[in-house]
Amino acid sequence: MRALVREAGVLRLVEVETPRALADDEVLLRIELAGLCRTDCQVAEGRLGGGVTRRILGHEVAGVVVDRGPAAMGVEVGARVSVDPRIRCGACEACLLGQDCLAPRFLGVDVDGGFADYLRVPAASAVVAPLGLDLRAVAYIEPIAATLAILEAGIRRGERGAIFGRGRIAALAARILALHGFPAILLHDPRQDPPLAPGSLDFAVEAGIEEGTLAAMVRALRPRGRIVLKSRAIEALALEPMALIRRELRIAAAYYGSFAAAADLAGDPRLDLEPLWAEPRPLSAFAEVFAEAARGEGRKLFFSLVEADA
Q1: Is the predicted pLDDT of residue 255 greater than 70, yes or no?
Q2: Would you give the distance in Å from CA 35 to the centre of its chain?
Q3: Does residue 263 belong to any structural domain of this protein?
Q4: Less Cβ crowding at N or C end of the chain, within 10 Å?
Q5: Cβ(13)–Cβ(288) under 8 Å?
Q6: Cα-Cα-Cα-Cα dihedral of 120, 121, 122, 123, to 10°?
Q7: Exposed/middle/buried for 190, CB within 10 Å: 0-12, 13-18, 19+?
Q8: Is the confidence at residue 308, as pLDDT, over 60?
Q9: What does the pLDDT read at residue 309?
Q10: Domain, as residue range, for 189
């Protein structure tokens, strides 16, 4: 099968062996569409997963189940699915208790991912999509689930809030918050917009951390306000503890919300995702697609794996 891999520090489209032998609880997906995100770019640059000799990238996928192990539950052959990219270890105390895994492996970073014709994952990681859903919406279930985590970070309806960032990630957060009872949420780009009034916010959501973003959020928050970290920045952040302590600010980190809720929301016309999406391009165009992603994050970029590359 075709697969986009980072090998010896270089991104290549190569042919690799198609996964054959499934574990009892695994399913095999034929990938139809895959989205490109910051994490994939960081892996391609060697900033994540750099110690691995070879890795197939990709974790935002839309695929069809073509095979399943004898103990794979909850998903049938022929189902169209997305994937929760956190692959549980199955052995830690939390896994044994049915809780969130303490050391999950991440698809496309710690284990081979979905920029390939086929992908093997545990059945428990497959997220069944509503019938008739646009393939881009199926692949977009993962970003929606990641954004839904903001709602679990302690913010409340009626509070004054702002999203600090720009591009599609900030826009998606604004759409989801508005749909869940935060209609007056402010989109604020600290690089271009005038500073917000000190103490004007009850909460601030970080959707693209850059130098000065955290300090701008701190200044804009009222006493006992809340900072929500969302963008999964891998660089260390400069933090002035006394600025937080004096006003008793809270910091919450948001990772993932419900994938089932995200699958339902992906087909909700009120969310209006179409303006956030670019047209899919073939996997063979990976160099230009990654170059476009490096220039900005205005629209979600997708790889189509349905049609043969020209």
Answers
A1: yes
A2: 9
A3: no
A4: C
A5: no
A6: -90
A7: buried
A8: no
A9: 46
A10: 147-253
The total of structural domains in the chain comes to: 2
Q: Whole-model pTM above 0.90?
A: yes
Q: What is the CATH number of the domain that holds 6?
A: 3.90.180.10
- Angle among Cα 178, 180, 182 to the nearest 5 degrees reads 45
**Residue 224 exposed, middle or buried by CB count within 10 Å (0-12, 13-18, 19+):** exposed
* Structure-block tokens of residue 155: 């913010």
Q: Are residues 130 and 191 in the same domain?
A: no
For residue 42, the SS3 value is helix
Give Cα 107 distance to the centre of its chain. Answer: 11
- Tell me the CATH number at 197: 3.40.50.720
Phi and psi based region of residue 208 (left: phi greater than 0; alpha: psi -120 to 50; beta: remaining): left
> Alpha-carbon distance 142 to 252, whole Å?
20
**Terminal CA-to-CA distance of the chain, rounded, Å?**
16
Of the listed ranges 48-57, 202-211, 219-228, the one predicted with least confidence: 48-57
Other beta carbons within 10 Å of 99: 10
Distance separating alpha carbons of residues 254 and 232, to the nearest angstrom: 9
The residues with which 86 forms a beta bridge, in sequence order, are 106
pLDDT digits (tens, 9 = 90+) for 271-307: 989 999 999 999 999 999 999 998 877 899 999 998 6
Output the DSSP codes for 193-255. Answer: SPPPPTT-EEEEEESS--TTHHHHHHHHEEEEEEEEE-S---S-----HHHHHHTT-EEEE--
Q: What pLDDT digit, counting tens, does each position of 12-44 carry?
A: 999 999 998 899 999 999 999 999 998 999 999
Is residue 18 located within the same domain as residue 94?
Answer: yes
pLDDT of residue 137: 97
Q: Is residue 309 part of a domain?
A: no
Selected residue with higher pLDDT from 21 and 133: 133
Instruction: Categorize the per-residue pLDDT at 118 as very low, low, confident or very high, splitting at 50, 70 and 90.
Output: very high
pLDDT at 135: 96
3-state class (DSSP) for residue 85: coil
